[in-house]
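Customer escalation, tier 2.

The customer says the design service returned an amino acid string that "doesn't look like it belongs to this structure." They asked us to rerun it and document both sides in this ticket. The original structure tokens are below, unchanged.
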């Protein structure tokens, strides 16, 4: 008898959270003079200690051309994700829905970073919800662009990375993307302190 009520309550709560995120994004887009008053969920420093990278990366074909890797710092997995390049936040959004591995969908909290002087941008998913900087924020290489999380469909903490051309087309040719990902992994392992 309680199951339908609980199911309805969970559905209403999920819809409410989604509406709050939409309102927050609307405020950030249309009231830039207010958004500096909001507490940022990312750091401003581009200095970070070397990370341990697990897998060291996993070639993910969901969707084709993606990479997955887990960052660890001092035994912690809920860690800042350093930017792979200097650039501008193109967009932040939530894709899919949270839940168990069997019920969740999508890449969860996503941040897209356009790299200066290139024809591509990085898309990073499964971030802690609400952690990315807002659209248009200038980012230096190594500055956190979010917190590694468990949003969307994931079996554990990791970063889901894709590289796209500026027109939005995902780059599936690993001859193009693999050197970029491997250079990023080397950068993370070295640190910038």
């Amino acid at each position: 008898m309680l199951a339908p009520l609980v199911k309805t309550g969970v559905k209403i709560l999920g819809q409410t959270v989604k509406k709050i995120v939409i309102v927050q994004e609307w405020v950030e887009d249309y009231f830039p003079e207010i958004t500096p008053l909001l507490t940022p969920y990312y750091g401003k420093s581009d200095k970070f200690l070397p990370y341990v990278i697990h897998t060291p990366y996993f070639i993910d074909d969901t969707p084709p051309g993606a990479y997955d890797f887990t960052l660890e710092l001092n035994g912690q997995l809920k860690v800042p994700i350093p930017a792979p390049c200097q650039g501008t936040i193109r967009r932040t959004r939530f894709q899919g829905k949270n839940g168990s591995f069997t019920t969740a969908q999508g890449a969860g909290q996503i941040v897209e970073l356009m790299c200066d002087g290139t024809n591509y941008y990085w898309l990073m998913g499964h971030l802690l919800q609400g952690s990315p900087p807002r659209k248009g924020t200038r980012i230096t290489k190594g500055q956190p662009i979010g917190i590694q999380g468990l949003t969307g469909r994931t079996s554990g903490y990791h970063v889901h990375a894709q590289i796209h051309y500026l027109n939005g087309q995902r780059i599936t040719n690993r001859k193009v993307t693999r050197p970029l990902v491997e250079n990023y992994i080397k950068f993370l392992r070295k640190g910038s302190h």
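Tier 2 assessment: The sequence is consistent with the input. The chain has two helices and nine strands. The radius of gyration is 17 Å. Sent an explanation to the customer and offered a walkthrough call.
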